[in-house]
UniProtKB/TrEMBL annotation:
It is a multi-pass membrane protein. GO terms for biological process: iron ion transport; zinc ion transport. The chain crosses the membrane at residues 20-41, 92-112, 124-144, 165-184, 190-208. Belongs to the cation diffusion facilitator (CDF) transporter (TC 2.A.4) family. FieF subfamily. Keywords: Ion transport, Iron, Iron transport, Membrane, Transmembrane, Transmembrane helix, Transport, Zinc, Zinc transport. GO terms for cellular component: membrane. Coiled coil: none annotated. GO terms for molecular function: monoatomic cation transmembrane transporter activity. This is Cation-efflux pump. Residues 22-215 form the Cation efflux protein transmembrane domain. Residues 220-296 form the Cation efflux protein cytoplasmic domain.
């Protein structure tokens, strides 16, 4: 049986998302081809610019396809965090292409404006293509938005709103073409420059987001606050610190230190950390994995325990300290608590060794006094069972 709360190494909806995006990509290929061909033969620089803008949608669709494809691949030895950063690197490269294309279109249109005698008047076919583009892009927006809601995909939602911005650029083109046809000859080139600015802006935004991800910029403040609330809602978590996040593709990775009662068992501490991981992946969208570090004290401010010896050394010392105590040979187990830069020792003995409360107090005092000379041992407590 599959654990729904396990880290998502594969994207279960990736195949369906790929089919949705492929349909949009096919429509954009047809639309871009139509815009470029009609723009050239219909003598509309704005329509040609919008055709290149539509081509930028193909790049966006390709990125979404890459997210669905690579996100569906499990992490491997060479890519322990998955393959989503391949998409990020591709995004940055494509952003440079978009900016270059936008600048080129703007320069060409500006050159046409500087030589008004060479401005051509678009024909009715160019206007019809511009109006058709508005309807097609609005239809793509509605289709992608419904698919995003059905598949609960923020990636598809983002792509849908990208299509909606394209609707407005196509409206600008239609106005420019219509104005040129009515005698305002330079309006088509002005519209081309407007569309070029949109292309450059889109490229710059994609590049900026990709660069932020590549340098491990954390999640936004609102999402961090939601993560804090979810963690603190888990029973057993006293507080948290050293919360760190980063993105890879459309997914986020979280690691955090949580403070729990220093006297609980290792297994209980682990269970609390598991509940934190499960809750975050269940209640905060797009979290791919969570690493939880259990702290028995606030190690951001408390004394460090790094210089304290481990169990083998402490048991060796205790054997030496307790050599003169007969009951020491009957110790069942020793529990060590590393707190505030010192060690609290917990000895477990059989109740048969202390049939009365007075006997228990005597043994407690003997063990405590024997270890009192060790500056790294904070206390010794004897527990009978």
């Amino acid at each position: 049986m599959t654990d729904k709360n396990a880290p998502q190494t594969r994207d279960e909806g990736g195949g369906e998302r790929q089919r949705v995006v492929l349909r949009g990509l096919f429509i954009n290929v047809v639309l871009a081809t139509g815009q470029l061909v009609v723009g050239v033969f219909g003598r509309s620089a704005a329509l040609v610019a919008d055709g290149f803008h539509t081509l930028s949608d193909l790049l966006s669709d390709t990125l979404v396809l890459a997210a669905a494809h690579f996100g569906a691949q499990a992490a491997d030895e060479d890519h322990p965090y998955g393959h989503a950063r391949i998409e990020t690197a591709g995004t940055f490269g494509l952003s440079l292409v978009l900016v270059g294309a936008g600048v080129g279109i703007a320069l060409h249109a500006a050159a046409a404006l500087s030589a008004p005698g060479h401005l051509a008047r678009p024909d009715f076919l160019a206007l019809a293509m511009a109006l058709a583009a508005i309807g097609i892009k609005e239809g793509l927006f509605r289709y992608m938005r419904r698919a995003g809601s059905r598949l609960q995909s923020e990636l598809l939602h983002a792509n849908a709103w990208h299509y909606r911005t394209d609707v407005f650029s196509s409206i600008v083109v239609a106005v420019g073409v219509a104005g040129s046809m009515m005698g305002v000859r330079d309006l088509d080139s002005v519209a081309a420059i407007g569309v070029a600015i949109l292309i450059v802006r889109m490229g710059a935004m994609l590049g900026w987001q990709a660069m932020r991800e590549l340098v491990d910029t954390g999640l936004e403040a609102e999402k961090l606050e939601r993560i804090r609330r979810v963690i603190l809602s888990i029973d057993g978590v006293r507080t948290l610190h050293l919360l760190r996040t980063r993105r890879a593709g459309g997914r986020a990775f979280v690691d955090v230190h949580i403070l729990v009662d220093g006297t609980i068992s290792v297994s209980e501490g682990h269970q609390i950390s598991e509940m934190v991981r499960v809750a975050l992946m269940r209640h905060v969208s797009n979290i791919a994995d969570v690493v939880v570090h259990i702290d028995s004290e606030d190690d951001e401010h408390a004394a460090t325990n790094a210089r304290l010896p481990l169990r083998a050394e402490i048991l060796k010392r205790l054997d030496h300290y307790f050599a003169g105590i007969e009951a020491a040979r009957a110790i069942d187990s020793v529990v060590l608590h590393y707190l505030c830069g010192r060690i609290a020792v917990e000895l477990h003995l059989s109740l048969d060794l202390a049939p009365t409360a007075a006997d228990a107090r005597v043994l407690q005092e003997q063990f405590a006094q024997a270890a009192a000379r060790d500056p790294q041992i904070a206390s010794v407590e004897v527990c009978f069972r």
